[in-house]
Specification:
The chain has 4 domains: 120 residues, Rossmann fold; 84 residues, Regulator of K+ conductance, C-terminal domain (Alpha-Beta Plaits, 2-Layer Sandwich), CATH 3.30.70; 125 residues, NAD(P)-binding Rossmann-like Domain (Rossmann fold, 3-Layer(aba) Sandwich), CATH 3.40.50; 68 residues, Regulator of K+ conductance, C-terminal domain (Alpha-Beta Plaits), CATH 3.30.70.1450. The protein is built from 14 helices and 22 strands.
Length: 450
């Protein structure tokens, strides 16, 4: 598939890396020579130096021939103009990163479609919703809702005192016959394992378990962890994502949260205090240990660090963990930091580039693909696909299917009912199937649904 990416920054680079590894024909346009050099030196993609709002430069980048044009510069207006020009030039689908709420509001005078944009993505807002979801599962490092929220995939780090250590997956399932769940992936010392029944759990494994949403709390207990209710939250970094998280929590219909938001810019802090009267806004340096202690970080249930300085996010979360805060979440952009952060004791890390990649992948893999989610810290993806009458996946029970190596079917949504898949499960036309696989197996498993 021919894909043109406008913007070679963090998100553009990450998308180019993922899409080129999947053998798509990718072109990246940017006017920053340094950003383009980074892309050209490490990825198998074509780079074009030019202005995203120049018709001439967009023609040079073959934007009009693109099956998908992805506009992800750091400026909303540039993305909108590039998308409009790309559409006029002939791009079949236009995806644009637009962070302004003015275009997503129901009463907006201009909608994305008016601008020729098919899909509007907001990575920061997606990441903010992920963090809010993590606060509702205190023991989990990852929480992904699947099958219309009827199933959840949770990530849990096994401590050395976990009752699962040295037990095989087969023994684990046999010890809890009353529960229906499936361990679909394990992250172990930088390796990703799609496990079989004989694999044994080890200290500090990051395990990913799929179960019906109503059973998740019971599944968590089997790992030796206990769910704790979180009520008070301190957020370091008030602009951008921090304000979004605070707003999501303030508007939570299920419970009332006590939220403290720390913002270093006085004018922004003042405006936040005016806009969000339900929360306490503090003016100060969110990475200052003295300020955090003075404002009662040790009395908080959760601490979230979403400043632009990811090293400071990690350090402040470690300090919060040292002060026995129950849940810490750090915003981390560098891929190398993600497995490291969990190894040194952070509860969860969020990467907004992954959030953008997950949103865009659903449109790149069109057809029967309902959703695609990349798991943080390990090289595995969760794909939700729908079977048709012609799909090869419907011809035999799962145990008789020749599934690609590095791939496991986790669950099925059928006529509103959910089922954790076993070898005996027969997939029918119309079923929505949740699959976990290594990137190398994605194309092969997708073909079984065509």
């Amino acid at each position: 598939m021919k894909i043109v990416i406008i913007g070679g920054g963090e998100i553009g680079y990450d998308l180019a890396s993922v899409l080129s590894s999947e053998k798509h024909d990718v072109t990246v346009l940017d006017r920053d020579k340094t950003a383009l050099s980074r892309v050209a030196d490490s990825l198998d993609v074509l780079t074009v130096e030019g202005n995203a709002t120049s018709v001439k430069d967009l023609v040079s980048a073959t934007a009009g021939e693109a099956e998908i044009l992805i506009c992800v510069t750091s400026i909303d207006e540039v993305n909108m103009i590039a998308g409009m020009i790309g559409r006029r030039l002939g791009a079949k689908m236009v995806i644009a990163r637009i962070r302004s709420d003015e275009f997503s509001d129901d009463n907006a005078p201009l909608t994305p479609s008016d601008l020729g944009i098919d899909v509007m993505i907001h990575p920061e807002l997606s990441a903010a919703h992920e963090i809010a979801q993590l606060l509702k599962r205190s023991s989990a490092s990852d929480v992904i809702n699947l099958a219309d929220d009827r199933m959840q995939l949770i990530g849990i780090r096994l401590e050395k005192d976990s009752p699962l250590i040295d037990k095989s997956l087969t023994e684990y399932a046999a010890n809890y016959p009353e529960l229906t769940f499936r361990v679909v992936a394990i992250g172990r010392r930088g390796r990703t394992i799609i496990p079989t029944g004989s694999v044994k759990f080890q200290n500090y494994d990051q395990i990913f378990v799929l179960a019906e949403t109503q059973d998740i709390n019971d599944v968590i207990k089997t790992t030796g962890k206990k769910e704790k209710e979180l009520n008070s939250v301190m957020i370091a970094g008030g602009s951008g994502m921090g304000a979004m998280i605070a707003k999501i929590l303030a508007e939570d219909p299920a419970k009332t949260w006590s939220v403290k938001l720390i913002e270093p810019d006085y004018d922004k802090a003042e405006q936040l205090a005016i806009d969000m009267k339900e929360i306490m806004v503090l003016h100060g340096n969110p990475t200052d240990p003295d300020l955090l202690v003075t404002e009662g970080i040790n009395e908080m249930d959760a601490f979230i660090a979403v400043t632009d300085d990811e090293e400071s996010n990690i350090i402040s979360c470690l300090m919060a963990k040292h002060l026995e805060v129950k849940k810490t979440v750090a915003l981390v952009s560098k891929p190398d930091f993600i497995p490291l952060a969990q190894t040194i004791g952070l509860d969860a890390v969020i990467n907004k580039k992954v959030a953008a990649s997950n949103e865009i992948h659903r449109y790149v893999r069109r057809g029967r693909v309902i959703s695609v989610t990349e798991l943080r810290g390990i090289k595995a993806e969760v794909i939700e696909l729908q079977a048709t009458k012609e799909s090869k996946i419907t011809k035999k029970p799962i145990k008789k299917l020749n599934l690609p190596e590095g791939c496991v079917i986790g669950g099925v949504l059928r006529n509103g009912d959910v089922e954790i898949a076993t070898g005996e499960t027969q997939i029918n036309a119309g079923d929505r199937v949740i699959i976990f696989c290594l990137p190398s197996a994605v194309d092969r498993i997708t073909k079984l649904f065509q």
